[in-house]
Design a protein that fits this description.
The protein is of the alpha+beta class. It is built from two helices and three strands. The protein has a three-stranded antiparallel beta sheet with strand order 1-2-3, covered by helices on one side. It is globular, with a radius of gyration of 15 Å. The two termini are 19 Å apart.
Length: 108
């Protein structure tokens, strides 16, 4: 049985680094007023990744890419890899300065 080329290799770290580098290179997706709102930050990240994720990851990793989901869907972004594994991304923010946070756990 084949395994995910992203989660069972160093590719996970490469994907994470590529997304972080891309987001950090964007200078105008947050304003002073939106930077203080986790919800606004999450929406901005979702929008900018929705437009650019396939370009950031490359078509060898990110095939059949979609950012078109219903407003209330769990998925924000999704794609398949070369082996046909389907990846669903739910964009979340986490304010590091808070002392109490609750994770959202979803089992498929």
């Amino acid at each position: 049985m084949e395994k995910s080329q992203i989660f069972y290799s160093d590719k996970f770290s490469e994907v994470q680094a590529a997304i972080r580098e891309f987001l950090n290179s964007q200078e105008d997706y947050l304003s002073i007023s939106t930077a203080n709102s986790p919800r606004a930050v999450g929406d901005a990240i979702q929008d900018i990744l929705g437009i650019n994720l396939q370009q950031v990851l490359g078509e060898d990793v990110c095939k059949n890419y979609s950012a078109n989901f219903a407003r209330r869907a769990m998925a924000d972004l999704a794609f398949e890899d070369d082996n046909g594994f389907y990846y669903v991304i739910d964009v979340k923010t986490h304010r590091l300065s808070t002392k109490f946070n609750i994770a959202i756990l979803i089992q498929f």
